[in-house]
Amino acid sequence: MGTEDIEDIKGNRGVGGAGPLAGLAAERVDVRFKGLPPDADGLTVGELAAQRRNLFTGGFTTPVLALSAERLTHNLELMETYAARHGLSFAPHGKTSMAPQLFHRQIEHGAWGITLAVPHQVRVARAFGIQRVFLANELVDPAALRWIAAELAADPDFAFVCYVDSVRGVELMDAALAGAGARPLDVVVELGAGEGARTGVRTEAECAAVADAVAAAATLRLVGVAGYEGEVPEADPERVRAWLRRLVALAADFDKAGRFDGADQVIVSAGGSAWFDAVADVFLEIPELSLPVLKLLRSGAYVSHDDGHYRKITPFNRVPGEGALEPAFRLWTQVVSRPSAEQAFVNAGKRDAAYDIDLPFAQAVRREGAPERPATGISVTGLSDQHAWLRTAPGADLEVGDWLGLGLSHPCTSFDKWQLIPLTEADGTVVDYIRTFF
After folding, report:
1. pTM
2. By C-alpha distance, which of 359, 358, 280, 277 is closest to 314?
3. Which pLDDT score is estimated for 118?
4. Within a 10 A sphere around the Cβ of 4, how many other Cβ atoms?
């Protein structure tokens, strides 16, 4: 995307994001985008989508990552229903996809806003009209803070919240924002999940000291507490619930002490993709406070789910009556070498497939003129930069030229390898293209 495109996006910024998203459809297809048909170069993304090409017969080249249209919709609807059923607001973590089209679909399916991790991600969200951002990090970069202040000053409907987890951080934020002339920046104290965990204040006494520092800073306003239960050491249901009860108690103690004076509501936020059932249960225990409470869940991996890590740990395995998420990614590769009866190689590797948690999973084989079939007796044993190593059992039917569909583990490191992802219906029809910004 060029400078003119970005300026057009800024000029069309709106709550619904229609103008910015239309700008994505006007982007030209070229060699930046892996897997797309070579004869599509020069078309706009919208023109290519309107052709409704078939992923398998429409000129796409391997490797190519496809996102299932039906499964994506299912996952969006399932989490919308889950959050509503449990009285939760939802700010899914946008770092998973960094795809503004998906941000807007999440908001259309009931999301309060989008969670992000670093300033660049916030800039992307704002460029595409996202009006509520929860930054799950302490923000101490002066340039980024001044930019946020300018956004707040320019747009009274823009809501921004970020973590604070140290007195030093509060002091740096206050110094950077002094004289900015914007409304106060809303912050939540991050309660850490214990020694050995990631970020966050370790003790309640230290949390109070951070809250006192916020109260002394004219540029900041304390509006809640938050944290990430996925960092609880040796996490099990009881340990996770115990930490969540500490978070709830911290909110109640801060409210009793009048620390949320000036806030419109109290935000209590947690919830990765592994323990949101525990979050739902414990957040029912939040007592009545002096202000309305926004119970904010932040799970992000649900949007595509996966065939490995999250498939194993999703709370829906523990509460099957709630429904089930569906893996929505498939990476299509092609067999380029079959050196022995026990070994084969396809043309996708670390540049194309997530591998930081699990190797890809061989799932389906397509051969020209034959129906798709399960990848029986085929497994991925390793990845090079541009090859996946396959072990093939005796009798496994796999030939050079076959397409092999791989399931992936860990959505966060699947999205980030692809700038333009075909959104594909079950019969292979590509109905749209999802643009990512990593």
Report:
1. 0.94
2. 277
3. 98
4. 9
